[in-house]
Amino acid sequence: MQRNGGQLLVESLVALGARKAFGVPGESYLAVLDALHDTQGQLDFVMCRNEGGAGFMAAAYGKLTGSPGICMVTRGPGVTNASIGLHTAMQDSAPMILFVGQVGTDMKGREAFQEIDYRAVFGTMVKWAVEIDRVERVSEILARAWKTATTGRPGPVVVALPEDMLTSTTQAPALVGPATISEPAPTASAMAELKAILTQAERPLILYGGCNWSAEASGQLQAFAEGSDIPVVSVFRYIDQYDNYSPTFCGEAGVGMVASVKKLMAEADVILAVNNRFGENSTDGYTLLAVPLPKQRLIHVHASDLEIGKVYQPELGIQAGPNEFAAALAVMGTVTGDWSAWRQEGRAAYEAGFELGDLPSPVDMGKVTAHLRHVLPEDVIITNGAGNFTVWPNKFFKFGPKARLLAPQAGAMGYGLPAAIAARVASPEKTVVCFAGDGDFQMNCQELATALQAGAQPIILVLNNGIYGTIRAHQERNYPARVSGTTMSANPDFAALARAYGFHAERIEATEDFAPAFERALASKTGALLDLVISPEAVTPRQTLKQMREAALKSAPSNEESA
Fold first, then answer.
1. Is residue 89 one of the residues assigned to a domain?
2. Same domain, residue pair 446 and 489
3. Contact at 8 Å (CB) between 170 and 137?
4. Which of 10, 30, 240, 533 would you label with 23, given CA atoms 20 to 30 Å apart?
């Protein structure tokens, strides 16, 4: 069958299982857009308003579903806008494929209009950057891109598409489906050594992360931890992959790490780390474990051999995916030891963190979050961008086994709203709630139009405090009494803006008004935005603000933007 490169690409994507593509149209890939005309209902193009929003949506879609989030943008300005999604997907270990138009092969190397060397620009940001310069190789390279995005440590891939390659014709066949690639499994000897190390422990700890857990695997890890009475801690922004209501769950190792979690990590004598990369935020700036030889006996389990020993040399490294490893734990059975008080202390400290007094703010976010814990459905999807406001969904909401969190490990402002739209596209039947600071929201508020057009409107809570909160805290710590460039003295009427995009919207100026307003938001068929008036000094709980400034800001990257 004769087809052009654009048709071959789209037919192969459908065969691989792609069902949604996020993007902004461009003349450099018109042949692909033409082919998408024939796949409506199979592979739908979600038209976004900015490539940055499209990149975030694709990254979030991949994180939520485990299938590569597909993004399509034009060359030059389009792909540089979308690059924030690539960086986020890489740090989140989320599968994503970005397709970008390229100048024709006859113009390459001349700095033609919007020309970019994609391998040079994105080679260090993604797992693989490739350019297809022969139409006959579309299926071959696409199959490799899909495999690369989804296996080992999942992540983003960039595929550049020269215009003449897309319009050239070929009889090369389309793909018929994805290759079946088994997740690496642990060996029997590795599991035996793991059991021996855990049995010798006095203060064991399980540290987990990553986005490609199955529900069954999460349950198996929980059953092992509960049966063995071992405390469990999440890495930064992966609290949703383990039941927070379990008596073994003790909190998150991330920005604003509480003292009890630091103690668990620092004083543990054995750490079983499963499916996590050892990032700066989850190690308190690489201080809780000594580099490269931690004093804790470290067992590191990861699907990618490149992650094992990358920062910390483990006593036992196990190359295995999280699902195969959890299955092996179920077969191995539980371990026993005299560490019950250790686990109980960690859990008690986690629970005590929810005990908040009144906050000096028109809208008290402690009471708001407590209300949400009671009224949101068990399969809610919560999203957020970056900023001090994220303490509420990340530290004061409990995620049960069916709830999900989409939040960027990269600390990228503007992620929350596009992620919420992607979640509604992927799961239109579910309640999706986005937490956004006022500055965070304004990074991508134009994507409200994408939500309206796609019929994917979430509920948005804008925490409106008029400052870039995290940067202000850094500023006050390093340059006391010299506030500069962090006050937003001119914000729009967020409720009016949302109504212009077809959303139900209200401004909430008192805590007691939140519950009835949120009930109306839940009932709205067109999504909702609630503009919550927050005092700048009350964006975080009083008892944790000092700790976050002195501890979290000391270890957090200086480019963790926020509002």
1. yes
2. yes
3. no
4. 240
